[in-house]
Write a structure and sequence with these properties.
Radius of gyration: 17 Å
Oligomer: single chain
Number of strands: 7
Shape: globular
Order of helices and strands: EHEHEHEHEHEHHHE
Number of domains: 1
CATH architecture: 3-Layer(aba) Sandwich
Length: 256
């Protein structure tokens, strides 16, 4: 029995898919029937993730990319298209977070966070978008953050917040431009998710846990698979009338 959530033989590029949320997204899309391009800065992680996807019975290739470098992105997309001949799904997941007071944030750190989190989404979206527009179909899902809509407490992270707010507005802008040409663009905004990066932050600042959980109505962190399922929906035909949407998956954090 097939459903609108099935992704039979669709070609998906997932950036930052070597670990964490990105790897879970790649795994989830593969289980739904997609073949994967694992686009990752860390080559070893990319190869490991690609082998896992192949083990699930899908095709996968690992491509190294630095999303803040336009030439690197263009080369990655060209190789992906050369290999699979088309791209049906793009998930812009690659991103970093740094916690530093705004007055102490050096220009190079500001630029690096904006470069990876926002410039990278633009470069990947436009590079892949040109192919999707030519084939008149495609779905792009950007990983934004609840931090693009609110300011987190207590950690200082102005650059991260600004970068994710930019991702949400870029999502809406591309959605409006491309909706009439067969390409949907949406974003998922996670709350606190139990990834290695988040656990590392809590280990360094154990006092954050009570604040985070106390400000989340569900009283817990989410899991990578809960974000992957949201991405799966937006990438599938089940979301055929959804574009320009920012789907917040945060356990209710932004409801208060």
């Amino acid at each position: 029995m097939t459903t609108l959530f099935d992704l039979p033989d669709r070609i998906a590029i997932v950036t930052g898919a070597g670990r964490g949320i990105g790897r879970e997204i790649a795994r989830t899309l593969a289980k739904a029937g997609a073949h994967l391009v694992i686009a990752e800065y860390d080559r070893a992680n990319a190869e490991d993730a690609a082998q896992e996807i192949i083990g699930l019975g899908r095709q996968a290739i690992a491509l190294q990319v630095d999303v803040q470098d336009h030439a690197s992105v263009e080369a990655m997309v060209a190789k992906a298209v050369d290999h699979f001949k088309r791209v049906d799904i793009l998930v812009n997941n690659a991103g970093i977070a740094e916690n530093v007071p705004a007055e102490d944030c050096p220009p190079d750190q500001w630029r690096r966070i904006l470069g990876i989190n926002l410039d990278g989404v633009f470069y990947c979206s436009t590079a892949v978008g040109r192919h999707m527009l030519a084939q008149q179909s495609g779905a792009i899902v950007n990983i934004a953050s609840m931090s693009g809509s609110i300011v987190n407490n207590p950690q200082p992270q102005a650059a991260y917040n600004v970068s994710k707010a930019g991702v949400i507005m870029l999502t809406k802008s591309l959605a409006a431009e491309w909706a009439g040409r067969g390409v949907r663009v949406n974003s998922v905004s996670p709350g606190y998710i139990a990834t290695e990066m988040t656990k590392k932050g809590l280990a360094a600042h154990p006092d954050w846990r009570d604040i985070w959980f106390g400000m989340t109505p569900m009283g817990r962190m989410g899991t990578p698979v809960e974000i992957a399922h949201a991405v799966w929906y937006l990438a599938s035909d089940a979301a055929s009338f959804a574009t320009g949407t920012d789907l917040i998956v945060d356990g209710g954090y932004t409801a208060w």
